[in-house]
User: What shape does this take?
Amino acid sequence: MAAIVEIQNLSKQYSGASEYSLDNVSFQIKRGDKLGIFGPNGAGKTTLMSILCGIISPSDGSVTFRNKNEEKIELRSMLFKLGYVPQDFSFYPELSPYQNLMYFGALYGIPKPELKKKIEELLSVLGLSHVMHKKVGKFSGGMKRRVNLAIGIINDPEVLFLDEPTVGVDVQSKNAIMTYLEELNQQGTTIIYTSHHMNEGQEFCNCIALLDKGSLIALDTLDNLLSQHEEKSLEALFLRLTGIEYRD
Amino acid sequence: MTKLLASIKKEFLLLINDKVGLLLMYLMPVLLVFVITLVQDSTFKLVNENKLEIIIVNNDEGSLGDTLMAQLSRTGTFHVEQKKQLSDSDIQKTLLDGSELIAIKIPERFTENLRAKAKNVSIGMLSEFELADTSDFVAQDAVPPLKMFYDPVLQESFRFSILSTLYANLSVIENRLMIEQLYSEMGFDEIPTGMEEKFKENRINIDQISANTSSGEIIPNSTQHNVPAWSIFAMFFMVISLGGNIVKERLSGSFIRLRTIPTSFSLVLISKLFVYVFVAITQLALIFALGKFVFPSLGLPALELPSNILGLIVVSLLSALSAISFAMLVGTYAKTQEQANGFGAIAVIIFAAIGGIWVPSFVMPSYLQTIGMISPLHWCIEGYYTLFLKGGDWYLLTPTLLFLILFNLACQILIYIKLKIQNYI
Assistant: This one.
């Protein structure tokens, strides 16, 4: 499968910081992958994801997106095809899911009739139809996570970035979210995912990138990595490669 | 365009969901303008309409004490209440206990002493021309002074103006007595008919002309100060809602998400601008409507709109934009919502105080008047004063409009720099 994202010599040093948060990282993400980026606290996961989404600029290196014809696409143009689900709730709690989705959908330039249809479908799949006109601020954590996800995929993204999408949710909501993400990937969406839930990552991802102290320390399919390091689980592999010491 | 409309709609929905913010923006200024106007109205009336209550204790046995009282009544400034047989301490006690602020005590033998004084002066004058003999001087005690008692709360300037009125009226009596004496010394029984009228006609009149460029004269009143003043205060107090709203959005995940969407934070700011201009204009319309239609039913003066309606619209729009630009500036630079709310509120209160919102600038010390010129609220209220009290000539409005345009530009440039540094736009 051809690459959809090419990351070359990517480095990031925040102003005032003595060390690089991301140090000369290079790898490719293939179209249709479910890539899990894992690493201890401070490894550079959020920095990498923020650069890939265009939230921050790298200090050095480049990120190249390619379309189905393998032509290069500028990040600005690619933004229409990117979806981002941040770890924090990134919506307006004073508004309803419907109002939030109408707003963010309009910013992608989706025509109103199409947008309305899309919102109804999404809220139905994510089990939020019955509360579509109620204020999100009064929802449970699981419901808020589903709203967060719905906004991230309102534009039918080709590449979807998920930063801890199931943190702090109940089992039912987690199941609904992961099932829907699986469906999206089946439909062709490339998913880049970070989490501290190793079991969830092991079940969901077909490809694993391990970051530690700003450097890429492992990248391969999960099966290859496990057999290469003679480990049975992602968690065991993670501890073996990153150590058992506390990270701040 | 669709993005902008969606953004405006989102801002509007956020606004109507912010019940506390709405109360602050609409109810607070309405209450303020009502309460402050009612309180200040009595002060303005004291100066413009009401007569000052004054006690006169007339111990004179002659007619001139009564003449002085009659003259003071005719000035239209005083409502004279005559009291008899009050000692100095009684008068002071009456002032401290009662509503009167001033008391005048006319001494005993006031008429007799004044007449003797006038006679001696006229003899002195005639003797200079050898028309009288200085042996005709009458023995005279020193004329005992009139006493003016005042309540300590009375402002010094106000006390001096009362004193001036008293001196002026005493001069009239003294001059008349002297002329009578002159005629008497020259052998006339009384001033010839018509001569007194001629003296009055000879007096130089003073025409009072209000410095405004419109034909009608508008007398300043509490409504004409408070309605625009508190409307401006309300507009600038939007900093609590809008400034906090911007910080909240900037720090929240929704803003992070906006940066992954093909749009710009400028769009968010422009949509806020549209919505809050609407808020500011509706605030103005509400408070002006109260001043125009509700105040008269409460016994307060009605708001008289200026003849230059276009000028009113321009000043109102620029004032609204200045308030919004200031709120955006605070929201952009504040690191937390608490910082934006605290700094914003305190800054607006200080700007209002030095800018002449609470009390007109001209009563402040000159250094404070100079400092007050940095306050955008000062220029807003100056604009309204020019419109409401000075006829609203465009030439007179120019400095105000220029300052407000420059203030807006400066705010927007500072906002742009901050957002650019933080890679938001």
